[in-house]
């Protein structure tokens, strides 16, 4: 029996596939199915996902929505240049996506808009019976997390979070090693989003807000208004799959502390001068926000949000169990009884080769050249395949909610001086018996 | 004006030396002074410190106390073998140290006993007018932290914490770089004690408690009874000096979370079998205890205690400011505008050479061969020199209290589900104006 048929999610528009999910012979029989996709948001991220979709023979892009007519036109052109039929375009208003999701020729919707739209758009898609694949984070607030869960349960339409880092090659191999018991019983994990975004939060120069470019148009405002972990999923996603969160485990409580806020102001002054409007803005976001999460299984996770200071990129992963420990900073591992020398790190590389995840072994060639070191291929692949097969996605609405909930819980804890905040149980108790769904085979 | 004469500590038995502390010419004139030391506790650690003391020409060891007659005899022999006069020995009872500290031929007392004795012994020494140099941690409880502070203030006798890691070569260089502004304004630090102590907590085999050997005789009981950061100072000491704690800054609040406890039980079973008495013990200590500390200056510190699982040793340092970041895991650094490639780590080694602390530049030759990579030389040197010169020690009673207080605060937070715990202000408000004392010159 596979995990798929142990999941109690009922998808009203398709039969549960059960063991078929792990049976390539049967699955390949469905290779002729096509998925008709609508895409909402074709800025940098949406365009990148569109390009991956256009590489696939099993997808049609039937409709695209973006309030920026130029971005929309570029995306429509991309589809045509790929020899595909010209998709319908929506750009009249911020709510034009509501028309897109109603179209009969849309089976599923990719959402790659600013954060504030992720949950409302996913909710609209589900209400229209269309599966959303939503970019990270799935929601900004706890209320939105519940909106996603409630809507998915009420409509029977699954919602997938497009968390690409779960498919990073080293992360996927570590996930496999966790499943195979190499680390023993997991005890402690670390992760985060440590990425100097100053050139993205301000662009060009010291600009942000409506007159700026790229994500500086909207993303920076979250740093002005909010103080907490604004972007937890790239880190917590892979750790949650390792820890079996929502499938035998769950996050129970967190505390967060934020440092003072220095980086963004100093950057605005350095780039725009002290008289620049950006230099007179007070940024709420502390430069480093650290969150401690307790799990029902007795594990803890440290999550870091660090986007305002000069620093090399790192998601700061650490997976630690009763038999060993892996860290991506330095790419090192130690496994008791396996590592040759006691108390000494080993390089990760030989383990990568030995424990490469079956997904990568099978699909590496197609992943080559896809965004973010190939991992974007897998997250698109998983979304498209789960839609085609009408099975629950490997990263579902409960994952989307539990991972994204960290943001508001963290903001609350920071505001209350580190006061612990209880996680809602979005599964309403079903985490106890739910089985894992992520990364269990080489299919998707 | 040096920091020394800005410190408001009054040492009743000696004049403040003021600027002399940084004037080698004057200081060298005191080279003929000798310090007469009593040593309490000559197990592994005390013996190691004794050997360093015996290398020095400016010390006499006049009395040694240990309840283990064999350990005492070995220590007394070591003194004689070094061509020194035979010291008096005390081993009659656990309270024999009370006689040692009263001796007229003892100026200062090194305390290297089990943790539970550190504070009472230091208090006894100060009451007798003898300066204690106390091993880490200085205290097990908050009440003991206050005992140290109150006694030092009432008697006017300084108390030094013998935190050797503050003098680790890379740590001292980073400290210098912090003082010189290379990291900009500090924002966030990390540290911890990540050391697989299973072979120390159980020795031999699965033994611990009175019948065991070495630290397994007493240290392991703390893991049976307590759940929190039992051993914070090796990590927090160096970060506290960088952050100016007790000298313009202070720790205000912490939260802690502990994982489940697996490592010690599993080790006891593996070494002693399931029927061994140690295998039937329930250990309170979570395998990984993570503590978040907020500072008055707006910085945060993550402190890790991780001593029950198989893992390579690491104190997990990270010093992060508005201009850059250093981590000892991987020995990497990034300084904006200094590092050649943006967003890319550099190896630490060239910085070690360039920013070697003046203490190391001056004393490296004497430090060679001293314990723990040479750093033990410096902590003994600092203690002896500050006693000789009758100046406050560079790591004082307020540091000892603030750093050691983490243990009970952490235990409380863990017990209360991560509830924030306020740090006592052991300086009673003087942290606002106190000047730093650690690592300011090449003298000690």
Quick structural summary:
The structure is a homodimer of 444-residue chains. With 444 residues, chain A is an alpha/beta fold. Chain A has helices at residues 24-28, 44-54, 69-81, 97-100, 115-127, 142-155, 169-179, 198-201, 219-225, 233-243, 263-272, 349-354, 358-367, 375-388, 397-415; strands at 35-40, 59-65, 88-90, 108-111, 131-134, 160-161, 186-194, 251-258, 288-295, 300-306, 318-321, 324-327, 332-335, 346-347, 421-422.
Topology:
Two copies of one chain form a homodimer.
Chain A lengths: L23 H5 L6 E6 L3 H11 L4 E7 L3 H13 L6 E3 L6 H4 L7 E4 L3 H13 L3 E4 L7 H14 L4 E2 L7 H11 L6 E9 L3 H4 L17 H7 L7 H11 L7 E8 L4 H10 L15 E8 L4 E7 L11 E4 L2 E4 L4 E4 L10 E2 L1 H6 L3 H10 L7 H14 L8 H19 L5 E2 L22
Parallel strand pairs in A: 1-2, 1-4, 2-3, 4-5, 5-6, 7-10
Antiparallel strand pairs in A: 7-11, 8-9, 8-15, 9-10, 11-12, 12-13, 13-14
Helix pairs in contact in A: 5-6, 6-15, 10-15, 13-14
> Topology as H/E string of chain A?
HEHEHEHEHEHEHEHHHEHEEEEEEHHHHE
What is the CA-atom radius of gyration of chain A, in angstroms? 21 Å
Number of helices of chain A: 15
Coarse structural class of chain A: alpha/beta
* Oligomeric state as shown: homodimer
Extended strand count of chain A = 15
Measured as a percent range, the helix fraction of chain A is 25-40%
Q: Which stretches of chain A are poorly predicted, pLDDT < 50 over at least 5 residues?
A: 1-30
Which two chains share the most extensive interface? A-B, 51 and 52 residues
Mean pLDDT of chain A: 93
